[in-house]
Amino acid sequence: MEKLIETNELYTNFNTFEGVVKALNGVGVVVNEGETYGLVGESGCGKSVTVRSMMRIVQAPGKIESGKVVLFFRAEDRSKGIDIIDRSEAYMTSIRGDSISMIFQEASTSLNPVLSIGYQVGESFHYHRRPQMLKETIAELDAEIGGKLPPLSKAWRSVTKRLLARELREREAYDARIDEIDKELYALEEQEGAGDVSKKRDLNARRDALQDHSALTGFFMGVPFLKRYRKRLEKTVHRHVVELLRTLGVPNPERIADAYPHELSGGMQQRIVIAIALACHPVLLIADEPTSNLDVTIQAQIIDLIKRLKEATISSVLFITHDLGLVAEVCDRVSVMYAGDVSETAAVQELFKKPLHPYSQGLLNSVPKVEQDGELATIPGAVPNLIVPPTGCRFHPRCPKKMDVCSASKPPMIEWAPGHWVACHLYTDGKR
Amino acid sequence: MSDTLLDIRDLYKYYPVTGGVFRKHVADVKAVDGVNLQIKRGECVGLVGESGCGKTTLGKTILRLHESTSGRIYFDQNPDKIEEVERLLAAPETAGQAKAALAEMDITKMDGTRLRALRRQMQIVFQDPSNSLDPRMLIRDIIAEPLEAQNLVKGADVDKRVLELLDIVGMGTGHLKRYPHEFSGGQRQRIAIARALATNPKFVVMDEPTSALDVSVQAQILNLLKKLQRDFQLTYLFVTHHLLVVKYTSDRIVVMYLGKVVENGPTKQIFEKPLHPYTKALLSAIPVPDPTTKREKIILTGDVPNPVNPPKGCRFHPRCSYAQEICRTQEPALDPTGMDGHTVACHRWKEI
């Protein structure tokens, strides 16, 4: 299987008043093409911070200290990939919501309460599919101008068409320039010389400074009466929105598109969030606990939807959850995280059948099963404070199989069996 | 002493919806709509259902944290006397005679003094311990509050009792002079449990006690609750939406949908042979932590309807795949199924 995205020795810290919270401690995660990859762990173990670092949207006091996030989206990058940590912000914006998109935990807070559903879903089309939308609108106007119309409306339509065509032209020129800069950047990265850091920064700055429309077009877009020409564009976007909602099984999509978030139920809100994420057919969908606030029957609906979508449109899904039941049902491969470390990575059957890391074992035993006899096994203690994380293996204070070496050094990630990776000193010497 | 500790008859709880300039009463949110439920001594009853089905409201109404709209709740009463009162109430001409008896026996009509005495015996543990503990009170004061309010312990004995309670819930000494924010979620929930146990109650309502906790901590709390139940002969009403938790803790499961009980039966029977289509869907929707079993899921369409205006007939019929004409018009009653203590409210449970 081909790699799609990979993180390498990722360290993310949060500088708070109490001290530096070392949230990620060298996380390495690989998502392959076509798989559903799960990240499990308790709250505060760094699951969300990991994916937020991958999208470079870590919140305010947080900072990615070091590490790599490498994308292998395009065929020509296969050999090396693109490290997005030192790419420009404009580059990230062009990726987010387009080739990687994300569903957040609480649908009710990730939707904007003062904007209509249609507007919020349509934003993705506006940002990432502008040329396509413009072309469609222009083609439509062309057809209308060719037909029979009163002269005045014909005139207005041809003005509209000209202005939209102008926008399209400028946008295409912008995209071409961006492509050029990206190629240059990529070539620079290939060389890996020491002297080109400033040149790289220069290129990134140039990329950020580019505008997708000229001052004149900006003027047209801002003047009260004149800017009505974009109504046609909005109409096209709205049509796409309704279509998208319909494919996601939203009943009555025309009405929903005009509604506001508070008018919808939790399950429906989550569908809308999924619609926003899927608007541009992402290569990778990151789902950050998409169902943890929903009821079981609604959860079943949403999970079913994500599964069907994965087969139809998205290539890979990165699924974050604390519910081991969901992991068993949805994922192909899983990583177990604890206190900012990945402790074990394996295929889902393998992990449930033969967990290697003591934490994975404890976690699996502490969930109530369908056939549960006797007491639940527990992991003693609680998750450590990450301002002063335990030395060595971060799990050692709670570990039932603790050894002397555990508090001294961090265990490396080793491949114990094919495809089954574990970071624990029990396995480092190749012995059990 | 009878076998039944808590006897709920025809309990209704409506929240009024007001509208217009004069805050006119326009509709009701039918949160609990005619619930009959008996809880035996020493039993753990799991109350499950989706959010908004009225399970928390039911739990709180039992303790009279919410005033009920109508209905009777008997706590620790002689069953013969209950039957007598019920008989009097059934006939309209004798209903007046039951009034005096109800004021003594029925939680919903008791006066302050009686209720206060009864509060000693029934307690509640809330969902989120970070909200249910006063952030400005010391742990010692939090746990001592019920003791002092009920005049159970005085003077220096209070500290001793608080320490004893902390020990019972598995927390060491040395926590007395600390504030809730200094503890982790699991420890806070332990403190909330200690507070609930302070007055030596017979009956505790557990309102989603583990849903704010992590899996490994959840297991600790569940084990603790089981141990406490054994040690102190407690009776639990375990309100939760997590079916596997209920399966682990409860002897009996009560399934609610839109303010009504749709199925009530022993845990084993419910899990092995659910009768109501809603229970079936609910059980099939649980994600099972075992990747080798691939089960057929029943995926319900649509959402839970609005409890202000619930569907006519069987409330589940718009989402039910077995719905027929009778389901749309007639409301099914809770029928005994012949198996011990297993009742179900469905017109077609025999066929499906």
- Total number of helical segments of chain A? 16
CATH architecture of the largest domain in chain A: 3-Layer(aba) Sandwich
- Across the major sheet of chain B, the strand order is 5-6-7-3-8-9-11-10
Reported for the largest beta sheet of chain B, the result is: 8 strands, mixed
Greatest chain-chain interface? Answer: A-B, 43 and 39 residues
Distance between the termini of chain B: 40 Å
- Mean pLDDT, all residues of chain B: 88
Structural class of chain B: alpha/beta
The 3D shape of chain B can be described as globular
Strand count of chain A: 12
N- to C-terminal distance of chain A? 30 Å
Helix content of chain A: 40-55%
Please state how the strands of the largest beta sheet of chain A are arranged side by side.
6-7-8-3-9-10-12-11
Helical stretch count of chain B?
13
Strand content of chain A: 15-25%
Radius of gyration of chain A: 25 Å
CATH topology of the largest domain in chain A: Rossmann fold
Low-confidence stretches of chain A: none
* Main structural class of chain A: alpha/beta
By CATH reckoning, the class of the largest domain in chain A would read Alpha Beta
Structure in words:
The complex is a heterodimer of chains A (about 425) and B (about 350). The longest helix of chain A has about 40 residues, at about 150-190. Chain A is globular. Chain A is built from 16 helices and twelve strands. Chain A is an alpha/beta fold. Chain A has helices at about 45-55, 90-95, 105-110, 115-130, 130-145, 150-190, 195-210, 215-220, 230-245, 255-260, 265-280, 295-310, 325-330, 350-355, 360-365, 425-430; strands at about 5-15, 20-30, 35-40, 60-70, 80-85, 100-105, 285-290, 315-320, 335-340, 340-345, 415, 420. In chain A, helix 5 crosses helix 9 and helix 6 runs antiparallel to helix 7. Chain A has two domains: about 1-115 and about 265-370, 3-Layer(aba) Sandwich (Rossmann fold); about 120-260, no CATH class. In chain B, strands 5-6-7-3-8-9-11-10 form an eight-stranded mixed β-sheet, with helices on both faces. Chain B has a three-stranded antiparallel β-sheet with strand order 2-1-4. Chain B starts with a strand and ends in an 8-residue tail after the last strand. Chain B is an alpha/beta fold and about 350 residues long. The chains are: A alpha/beta (about 425), B alpha/beta (about 350). At the A-B interface, helix 12, helix 13, helix 14 and helix 15 of A face helix 9, helix 10 and helix 12 of B.
